[in-house]
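> run fold Major facilitator superfamily (MFS) profile domain-containing protein
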Amino acid sequence: MKFPKIYNTYFVALVATVGGMLFGFDISSMSAIILTDQYIEFFNNPHGVQQGAIGSALAAGSIVGSIIAGPISNKWGRRWSIMFACLWWLAGTAIQAAVTGAGTLIAGRVLNGVTVGITSSQVPVYLAEIAKKEKRGSIIIIQQLAIEWGILIMYFIGYGCSFIPGPASFKTAWGLQFVPCVILMIGIPFLPESPRWLAKVDRSEEAIKTLAKIQADGDPNDPLVVAEWEEITTVLALERQSGGGLGIFFKKGMWRRSMAGISVQIWQQLSGANVMTYYVVYVFQMASLTGNVNLISSGVQYALFIIFTTIMFFYIDNLGRRTLLMYGALGMAACHFVVGGILSAGEYVPGGVDNNLNVLIQVTGSKSHTVIAFSYLLIIIYALTLAPVAWIYAAEVWSLETRATGMGWSAVGNWVFNFALALFVPPGFANITWKLFIIFGVLCVAAAIQVFLTYPETCGKTIEEIEEMFSDGGPRAWHTKPGHSKLDAIIEQVKEKHVGIDDVARGGSISVGAVAKDVEMGKA
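> ok
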């Protein structure tokens, strides 16, 4: 059965990024619940490594999902890899809704994690491949907004369900995770396939038709379509000449792209922001917030997350990726140092604050207000910088032949460290307390240094053009600037020379590739 396709890129992004909402749902499905009496009693007050295992189960499954995502996406296409991911979510959510103990909870979260690993890696790939270069950031940032809305919605669902007595409180909250998955499964058949994936699997006629509908209301001879199609086919032919296999990730300048694509995701985790998103209730307990006040105050941070990422939706394609990553990391470092410094003067509570064995230090008065304020500020900086830009940058740096698998490996980097941190943070709070924040501050400074030295600017470039930025003869990272795409000049030359899509397909005497070379040499 053929479903009608909707080619508006913002609509496509809204449907596809429901996959991100699944990610957000699973993150906060624990945050509002782990402090409730029902959860503590049912799971026998889990703490330390046991609570870390529960929290990190999602990331463990996501590692698996990220590893298998590339091959699945290359074989079946970007859309159907997302549909495949939904099946894992249905199984994981069913297990969580019928949870009988810590073991089944971990199993359900692992299965949900497989979904998150696939969607978190392939939705940005899909969006990067359908978006215009000048709108690519704002399109991909919708994925981050969907994650944040998922976090906020599920957090307050969990908070509302906390008033239900007994295990039904968290089972109801976890069971409601079915809803966004079903919405996503209904919407996927109405989305077009990525024109770049269609080109990759030699479905050229369908690729041109889809590219034309997305970029030019269906006109295949629109100069933008002609120029972009020539870019896609030329770069694809060159990539195929270099061979396949894992070795392609390390040939010529590709090793730089592999390093950038994977490390940007690792730094997003090592920035320490997930200490707040996963365990903010613990941090606020250190700041003497208890009960409903703690839960509501923790929910405020998720609202701030959405507000400030929404602001970036309007500006992300006018600001450089390097600038946001570098100064965002430095700003987060400052917040970590302040929080760690304030907590270092806190009171040690051997039995745990409010009997919570994960929280052994507490501050009061103005110190607690400072901790809360800088925790909020850290999340605001993260929402403006590393949270959306790390996913955008990772989706942009790969070539067409390597994008699905490469983005999968980027996500593996993200989820390996997400897993390690989710497992490490609860015992870290118990054993090194405030020093944990100092560690994250130092890591943020290291991230800023690598961004400055090795991340060229990708904002405003076509995803084919970015290949040149990482080549052996490419510019130094700190010499690159947003915009200045050659595609705009090529489009003007296409108009002047009256090149059509058939000329490109035939490889005739008037070649967009030759025009591109003229532009590069300054003749156009």
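The beta strands are 347-348, 361-362.
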